[in-house]
Amino acid sequence: MADDGAQLIGLDWGTTSLRAYLLAAGGRVLAQTAAPWGIMTVPGGDFAGAYRALVAPWRAQRAACATIAAGMIGSTEGWAQAPYRRCPAGAAELSAALVTVSAGDGVTVHIIPGVERIDHHADVMRGEETQIVGALARRPELARGATTFVLPGTHVKWVDVVDGRIERFVTYMTGELYAVLSRHSILSRPAPPVPDAPTHWDAFEQGVACARASSGGVAPMLFATRALVLQGRLPAEKRFDFLSGLLIGDELRSALPTRADRAPILVGEPALCERYVRAATVFGVPLVAMEQPTPAGLWTIAATAGLVNAPVTHG
Amino acid sequence: MADDGAQLIGLDWGTTSLRAYLLAAGGRVLAQTAAPWGIMTVPGGDFAGAYRALVAPWRAQRAACATIAAGMIGSTEGWAQAPYRRCPAGAAELSAALVTVSAGDGVTVHIIPGVERIDHHADVMRGEETQIVGALARRPELARGATTFVLPGTHVKWVDVVDGRIERFVTYMTGELYAVLSRHSILSRPAPPVPDAPTHWDAFEQGVACARASSGGVAPMLFATRALVLQGRLPAEKRFDFLSGLLIGDELRSALPTRADRAPILVGEPALCERYVRAATVFGVPLVAMEQPTPAGLWTIAATAGLVNAPVTHG
Known about the structure:
Radius of gyration of chain A: 21 Å
Order of helices and strands of chain A: EEEHEEHEEEEHEEEHHHHEHEH
Shape of chain A: globular
CATH superfamily of the largest domain in chain A: 2-keto-3-deoxy-galactonokinase, substrate binding domain
Oligomer: homodimer
Number of domains of chain A: 2
CATH class of the largest domain in chain A: Alpha Beta
Strand order of the largest sheet of chain A: 3-2-1-4-7-6
CATH topology of the largest domain in chain A: Nucleotidyltransferase, domain 5
Strand content of chain A: 15-25%
Number of strands of chain A: 14
């Protein structure tokens, strides 16, 4: 048996990728691994087989490790459906609603449910709830009073947390809008964005400022992106950063006014977080980025559910 | 020689199609024909050949007919570039800026320029300027004072006309946003829209009302389309009409407040115009649709330029 203190295998299992963490007390990451086996891409739809193949090297020496999973793996298209928990929801509500599925060889995987909002606004999340729990575990002071978290990505989540529970949230399709407009619309002509091209921050901030100033919303500005290029007022190679600025600027224009006084906390991929920090600066609002809290969230929910022999690390 | 009074061949030459009209005095349509030979799809990029092939039956007996063309054929990717005329522009400005190109066999084609707006807003149009001139020719009373025209389509134009000239305009990418979101985003799952499916007007009007009521703009409502389906609050088969209502509703929310008191005039394809009429009803605003005025516009600009031996039909 390995004697590294490993107690939990945590899975972050999304639409297009599967990431696994080997965790010790307090959510400390001993090792991690990943495969392009998301729920839409897992070979043969064999979730149990994919799981076993990915973590076999870990399990061989640590048969007693519990396993917990977050993300789209709990959707109707995933391994087993973990019905959404309704807001407000925190670590206690989520850990009380785990859904179990057998991976064979005597291993049980505990799937964390997503969270839904049902009021005048309709919304759902899967995976982000675990990031929120992890962020609160690592920054316990944010679990007192009201805090807003911003999770940039394909479907950006703005999450209002009150006293440690997700009180309400709104999804912005900003990342996906950028992807479909830059690849499939007239704005993609003559060619879509080049991967890893340097960012033209001047054009990005110009887009943010345009979105902020537009009394009619962002809709009349999208085609203007093309017109500005045709008129020689925007260099063609800068148009995608201008568009990115327009879309993120419109999101901030929509989302910022309803938030608490405390500066929103950014959780996400660093390059994307940098765009949000710069855009928010145009609005005169500070955003503070924090490191990826998914492992801490997986650990905290497992600990709250009693799956590991360690104290929960947050208040 | 044919003795049917034909004086003009008018071409409506866009990105994906070419339509030709044989016109007599006043813009009366004697015959029309079309081919899928837009500037992006014309065989071998041979504009002259496509033109001659399409109108050969007409020209054989009417060698003296002048030819005029509107649309993307005058763009940098078209037959010959007809540089944009700047706002304000009407029949006089457009007819003074025709660009000519030889179709061979002694035939000259006169290309109508597009119109651009260069101020705090950047915008361009090609083809719609001819529709506006035609609409004013057919309804001369609209050429006195201020009138707003709405031209629905992939790129919707809201055009403010003052005393018969295009004073300013704004393009909304509403049609293209619907296309890319319903075909290429998560909203397309599990399947994109079925062509010619019946319209669910209740869901459409619900979408319009949501967009009208949203203080944060339409951005937070797009993903809600999916969440409403997941939560059983919107039948899956109605989601595309809800989305259509959201996008058209957001356009009206943005565009209506800045317009003149006179009811906006709709010019476009009847099924699409019906959506705009119904959406505007949710806003308590009447929209009046009129028939396709392109032939009248082609005639009026040709007549103003002296290409035909007939009086201009409008004041």
